[in-house]
Amino acid sequence: MNGFPLWLLFIAMALGTFALRFSFIYLFGKVEMPEWLRRALRFVPASVLAALVFPALTYSNGVVDLTLGNIRLLAGIGGALVAWRTKNVMWTIVVGMVLFWILQAL
Amino acid sequence: MQPKHQDFLAGAQDSLPILLGVIPFAVICSVAAVSVGLTPFEAMGMSFIVFAGASQLAVLQLIGEGAVWMVMVLTAWIINLRFTMYSATLAPYLKDEPNYRKAPFAFILSDQAFGVTMSHFANEIPANPAWYFYGTAAAIWLTWMISAIAGALLGTLVPASWGLEFAFPLSFLALMFAALKDRPAVIAALVGGLIAIISKGLPYNLGLILAALLGIGAGVLAENIAEEKMEGAAK
Fold it and tell me: What is the pTM of this model?
């Protein structure tokens, strides 16, 4: 954390997030959302979430490992199948974690 | 005209089915917070102050990796950029409401409240649309808070040997697949994900932010190309 107080981190996250949530509700009638921004925003979740997932599954001990020895990758692929079929957070975690534990025990 | 509390209750009632998804997600956010070393009180505080699960999970993962705070805050803001879309869509229905009421309900605007509200408005606009939205937002917020408290207490019972940090990428996977609605979105995800792998070595986890921005750009580009093709075919 580099000594940065946790509560200040929460407050900084929250202030920005509130500004985003209140933005156009507050500004209605004064400012319209530009079309290019509307188009770009649509891709935020897919892009950011993939950027969080891909390295977490492919890196093992600091290097990219695409072999069968990388159990996070294998369990992640299992989790991805569940995520794709169900789009359900809880089931994806349950199946992915169980796979992870089984592979770890092997 | 229908009384306001009736629309408020209708909104809350229509949110009931989606609460089944809200409860485990809120529990997961708290358990995850405790697993990276936050106290139960800090875990609850994070949910109470921020109230945006995906960004909380992303920041918790970054705390676990020892990232710098500026990158954590920026990452949270980028993930939450989507709220401006919801805000712009809801704005016309809230235009006659006073700010002292709009502000607190904007604070508890969630993906789920937006989803329930807009899918209802697609069929029928209630007499007091603002109050219908307030009802969904309040029901989801209350459920989230109770579940977050339960999760924070549960989290202390989970031993570190379970390797629960692997639940982070798994939860992002599920949220990601829910966002892959068409081909440009898939391209945005592929580009964002691959750039994130390549740029992981950049200092301060800046690779994450770079990857997110390039992924968004790739999505916009893919959509533009698809539209040009459609126009070309129409001619």
Answer: 0.83
